[in-house]
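discrete fold record:
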Amino acid sequence: RQTTPRQITPHRRRRRVCNRGRTRCAMLEPTAIHSYEPPSYRVHPPSPLEGNPPSLPFACVVLESADAAGGPPPSLLHSLREQGTKLILAQPDETLLRDASSGSCRTASPSCSPRRHERSAKLNSEWFDAVFDKVVSLTGEEGSGKSPLERYWSDNGLTPEQALCFACTEIGAGALAAAESGLILSAYFEHVWRPHTSVPRSLRMPGADVAAPQCPTARQLAWLHSVFTLKLWCACLWLCPPPGEFPKAGVGSTPDGCDRALLTAVRSPTVGALGHPAWVWQDVGKERDAITGPICTCTLGKESFACPDWTPLEPRIKYSLPGPSPGQSHGARTFAMHSARNLREIKDFPKVDMYCHSLDVGVAEVNCTAELVDDSGCRVRVASRRLASLARSGHAATELSFAVLEPCRKYGMPEICVRSSLRLEQMSPDFQLSTKEVDKDKAMLKATYVDKVGRSISVTCWHRVSRDDGRGDVHVCLDSQSMRDPVSVSNATRSWGQPRVGVPALDFVISNARKGSRYTIEKIVIITGRGAPSPERHRLLSRAGSIDRASLQLELPYKEDEEGTFTPIGELEEEHRSTWRAEWDRADIEVAGSRKAARFQRAVRLFKFHQVSRGSLESIGACERQVPELARQLFDCVHRELCEDFDRRFCTDSPSSVILSRIIQPDPRFAAIRFEPRVPPACERLQFNCALGGRWHRFTLTPGTVQILVQGPTQGESQLLGDGIKVPPKFLIPSHETAERGSENDVAVEVCTLPWHEVQVQHSLTELGRPDGSAGGFYSLMRRTRFTRVEVLRRLLKDWAPGEEESPYNDDVIIAPLRGALAALKSAPRPPNWRRGDSEDLHMLQADTSTRVRVVLEYEKNELERDILFLDGKFEKAEGCLVGGKDLVEPEMLTIEEAKYRCYTIPGCRGFCFQHPYDHRLGDQEPKTPDGKPKTVLIHFKDSVEVSGSSWTSFLYTDGERALLEVLRRQHEEKFRSNGSASAPGQGTSEDISERGEDPSEKDGEEPLVEDYLKDGSVHVPSWEMCSELVNKVLGAAAAQGESRGPMASAYKLRLAHKLLREEPPEPRAFKNLITDRDGTVNNYCDRYSSCVQSAYNAAWLSHFARHCTENAVFVTAAPLGGRPSAEGLMELCVAPRGEFTYTGSKGREYFDLNTQRVVEAADLPQEQRELVDELHRRILALCSQPGNMKFLGIGSGLQRKFGEVTMARNDPAGTVPDPESRRFMAAVRAVKEELDPEGTTLDMHDTGTDMELFPRAAGREFDKGSGVEGLEEKLSLGIPLGPNIVCGDTGSDIFMVVSTLKLMCGEDMVKVWKERMKKEDEPVDERDPLDEDLGRVSSAALGLLEGNLGAGLSFAALSAGLTPSETGEEAEELLERRLREEVERRLREEEEEREAREAAASLAVLFVVSPKEHDKSPKLAETVRRWCEISGAQCAILPSPDVLVAAVGRYANQTAGRSVIEPTRAEPEEEEEREDVEEEAEVPIQHMSNGFAVDGGHKQNIAEAAADPNSVEPERS
């Protein structure tokens, strides 16, 4: 800067004070404010005359309507498209408009239905493809990731932040905001925020970011996008002037000038001013003062007073006219008249080409910019800014810049005048004007006021002029004789407008201004007074490092005023910004996340800006009440929007709740501060500082983690929780989100922090991890639940020997890990757009450093809840005493929790009771002593559930199996049946009926038969009881048919043989084999195969059935078997004890051999192909270990190593991974394949859309599950041909298991006959040939025999085929009779074979799971299964869910075993009497020996022969 000696004085003394102040500042680690760039790009918005920017920060432009008001013109769209921007037309569909009107829309409310002038015009769609890259609909699903607009972004590799949107309706603004668009513009400010129609003193924010009545240029759009997406310090921004600011322009938008001035007011603890533009002359009056208060204020002591208004800087221009010739008085008057007529004030310009009014809270400056055009073509740019220094007491500054961009077409460049005024109308009543001074030589205005008690207020305004020609600011000397910078200053005169009476004013006149040069009038304001500030203000001001302590003594006038010196605005601004950076380090609450979080960030900074500027640096206190009401309403609106689906405790109308709701007073139990670490779903990061225990603490909260950093000591600042905490405290961070505070499940981690040592605590599940559990996270958690479930099954199914100490399967040590896992799953973060009413199972986990994936944890959470109920049972509290029955044990003094655990261990216990008045307010909580400890009472344990009387309290116990069955029944009715009524099919909407699986054509009345489920178009789902009875009926019929075929040997013979050989006889089994698929059949589906861990209750029921009802239980799945390093599969997901089931994978091509404890291949694979698949698996695993690819291991199918095949997921059914990223990974996998097979002759690849299947090319029959069943029969000798058997499945590939089982039981030829018959039924052929007319050659006996067998498919034409005309008479008759008898005999043999085959197939039970949803995908599946069963005679049951099947077989096992699976069993010692009975029945000589008994060799041989009898049962294999 070029300065004059007269106007600058070195401030060395002040600099030294400032430096000392900075060294005493609190030691705080810098936050984001220190990375804050200079705001020049915000202070000066681009001009409409500037060309296109070299690059655009947005990649696509979305239009709600192609021709709505305020939308981009065609020329702009063409220009954007040339720069590579994609153009999208997204119009609300009729469903969204209808839902918005009814209030059922996700992205809109009932009050947002479009008005008539806002409706998008129905344009001809034929030209859309020529202009837009994509035309989509706004469906109301925005925010879920499934809307057409979001799918288009994902498919094209675009992020929502790269989108710039134009909305013309409130519905469109809400939908685009829900889609997380980067910037949303609308022509109407009410789409940004407006008063709420139904809730007083509150606002609604539909979703738009800024209102622009006319579309900005490309450079202005780029500027706006940067302002709203990069740094969130611009808290307020308007692109249209308020009504009345430019009356001749005829433009104006809400909010009005008063609201804008209040929201953008700049203040410090000693001085303040409203945020209106400097060229606006604010009206004063009682009515106006009641709304906005004084325009300018100052503080003396504890009181705030109105002071003279120092803000006006009014620009105006005057066109130069040729002067009159000497001696022409009339010409002089005419010249003066024309000169006055050519004077134009800024407010009188008829066109506003650009307008911007903004508040940058980062540097606490309000900026106003406008570009105006006169009728004569003169274009000017005027800008003002204002600040109230937080660094220097009583200092403020304002400036106005003026530039002529285009001169007048007729008169050329105009003269410029800026009138600076000091308004004196708005002073406090007690003060009277003492002196006023206008010094044009010093360019100074001054006014002094005094009151009756001697207090005084003095306002001094110094001025300075600078010029910028594009090479930086240059100081311009006033009243200099240089013709280069002709700037003069004078008292206000009539030549530049009538001066206001009693208002000190100076006119700064710029002559010969240059086009494009910017002239700036700086106005530095110094307010001094007589009267000391309050102690609080003194402490506040002394804390700021750059405060001039000499200026704190306001009793004396400011001495430097008399010397004519002042601080330049550059130095004042630098100190002001530095001080605000320090204050933002203390006061800022930094939020990062979705659009809701960004909107909340701007609102919270606007609120805290007004707090800090008024002196409340701790952010909590009385200054919250001084914040403008509109700022409070804005914060309340966005805060409630942010926390609407979170916790209502965090919703208040001030930012202090963000801190106080998380930092809670010390817990007396632990003498530590409780810290609530959760953040709303829309927040990815929340950071703030607060003073605790004499030190600053910084808390950084992310979903699932919290970081605590203890920083430097505070310097006298008040502590957040008072001065009672003298040292940095300990913190209690709860780990269970759902636990009630103070309850037993309220588990917390105690954290002790050290200064400058950051501690990070993970309190919830955040990472996805690797499927093998090696990287922690979600998969590691599910792996631990498997270990727990394995132990549960080991304890539950073990036959405890007499005297052996039994380990209960449901003690707290077992259940606690499952409860902890469930709590961890529930604590996982939600997606940003998750809101209450969305799926409770939808969460967001971190797959790698760059990818967060949406996961649906429905399977994992549901199965854990069911397992806990299965192990824990259920207690119901009731009033009264348990009557009837008897006391199972002696009464004991126990607490309620101890009594519950004791109840588990007492056989036959149905509940307990104690004498204590029933209190329904306690719920299930136990009585407590006065000091809050659990109270012991005398407990009576009963085997009765009948309750009677009063003054007693009872707890009724339902064991886990019964409680779980009741829950499954209820869930079945809720999912598949009508709302709350299982006996009212067909009620509700068509969508509800489809979801519940009801038949729309079903009429009210009688319940349809369970056998008719999915038959003849009926989709009505039977009740739980009916499905269970159907399974019981089918299994019973198959088992009975197996017995009716005649046992191969009596069970008595086999039992006798085992008794004589001192072996434990096998239990009689109803079925030979259980052959079943897993996922979707006996196990519910899961979105991720690697986390589909079998539940404990599921394994218990299936194992119970396998032990007591079948000799062999085999799982045949297409999934990998696992059982080998780095290739996990079915073996690592099942929890049943080894030996209960035979596990096979890859459709039966490999199985696990229990004897050798290794994986055995049932089919042969050439060594060359085996090595190729192994190398392919190794390379793909290495590819997934690279950065950015780790996430593909954890989604969908993951990486699966199968027999002769490798499957690699590139996405999941939910579309978690964006399509471009999915395609990139598929290309990388294809590159690995091509490296191994450059010629493309060895490996093949099949893409299913979500999975990539890579396998060697091989000739031969395709291997299916039926082939696997046949191979397993050959390898393991399962005895499938003997039957009875059970086959379970749920997909079309499982039908092959049914067919192959029928082949083994009925013969392959008969199955071919059935298959051919079914094919003929599907493809009708012509009717059989009619009888020939020439029947005279056949005898009556032969003809009768022929006619009697025509119905069996015989025809005369078939029998007479091949006869020649010479073969007549007796020869022909004999030949025909012989052929006829042969055909009849063949037919009878076939009928007998089919009868035997159907008799054998009748011992086959086919249980298929086909849900209504699956039936919609595969309508022929259930029909195909039924046809195979009907044609073969097999027993068939079609069931709606795996839960029904598993519960039904568990029930059948309970009936067969005579006990429940959870009832304890112990091996009983063999009784001598039973052994003697066996000896007598055997009638064979037994040789007694000292160590037992033995059988001689001859009898052993007889026993072996009996066992080998074809009519006997095979001995059980080891």
Notes: The chain is about 30% helix and 20% strand. The first strand starts at residue 60 and ends at 63.
